[in-house]
Amino acid sequence: MNWVPGEEPPLRKLVYYVATTLDGFIAGPDGGDPSGASFFPITPDVIDFIVTHYPETLPGPARTALGIDGPGQSFDTVLEGRGSYEIGLAAGLTDAYPHLRHLVFSSTLESEDPDVEIVSKDAIERVRALKAEAGKDLWLVGGGTLAHSLLPEIDRLILKQNPSVIGSGIPLFAGAFQAHSFSPIDEITLESGVRVLTFDRSENS
Q1: What structural domains does the chain harbor?
Q2: Which of 98, 102, 119, 186 makes the best surface tag, with the fewest CB within 10 Å?
Q3: Are strands 101-105 and 75-81 parallel, antiparallel or unpaired?
Q4: E strand segments, the chain
Q5: Are the C-beta atoms of residues 58 and 203 closer than 8 Å to each other?
Q6: Which H or E run contains 61?
Q7: Residue 47, CA atoms < 13 Å, CB-side half-sphere
Q8: What would the pLDDT profile of 44-57 be if each residue is shown by its tens digit?
């Protein structure tokens, strides 16, 4: 639906855009950075897809190396949990996405960077407030525990499904049982076998 000036703008979407294995894991059992692992190889076609469609989801150093600049195409805000954020910290990055508004959801972390907002409570309410603001969509980068806690507010799933099975690790959603329905709206198969699957929340969910 197109927005008509003078009317209330549509709510921003919370989009969970993440790489996953066939058996639904977004990282190995150690929870470390899965990028470039054997089960998540960074192949030229994957890089081309990201640069073309979601260049803002690349960390700052990668954008610099590739000569990418400017605002995001789809997202202007990134949300992540403590474990995901600590992967950047281990690499010496207190803000891996300086080109985006950056929120980290954790009840134990303290701010490592003035440009990173730490959300220590009421995650659902904070997301609802963000959705009501003007701007582009919100990117949920992970991890599985935060994704599970925000599941009622996730409007779209974009899964880079790799043709691999690892048996155990960090699940796409980590938490107690809760059922939500999503409908497939798009599928792109890359040369490497990665399928980019897009689902929108079903109207009755």
Answers
A1: 14-25+34-182 (3.40.430.10)
A2: 186
A3: parallel
A4: 14-20, 25-27, 75-81, 101-105, 116-119, 137-142, 156-161, 170-171, 182-189, 195-201
A5: no
A6: helix 60-66
A7: 12
A8: 999 999 999 999 99
Give backbone dihedrals phi and psi of 30, rounded to 5 degrees, phi first.
-80, -10
Summarize pLDDT for 30-46 with one digit per residue, the tens. 998 898 899 999 999 99
> Which of the four pLDDT bands, split at 50, 70 and 90, describes residue 6?
low
**Is residue 12 a contact partner of residue 135, using CB atoms and an 8 Å limit?**
yes
State residue 50 phi and psi, 5-degree precision. -65, -45
Burial of 14 (C-beta count, 10 Å sphere; 0-12/13-18/19+): buried
How confident is the model over 68-77, as a mean pLDDT? 93
Residues across the chain: 205
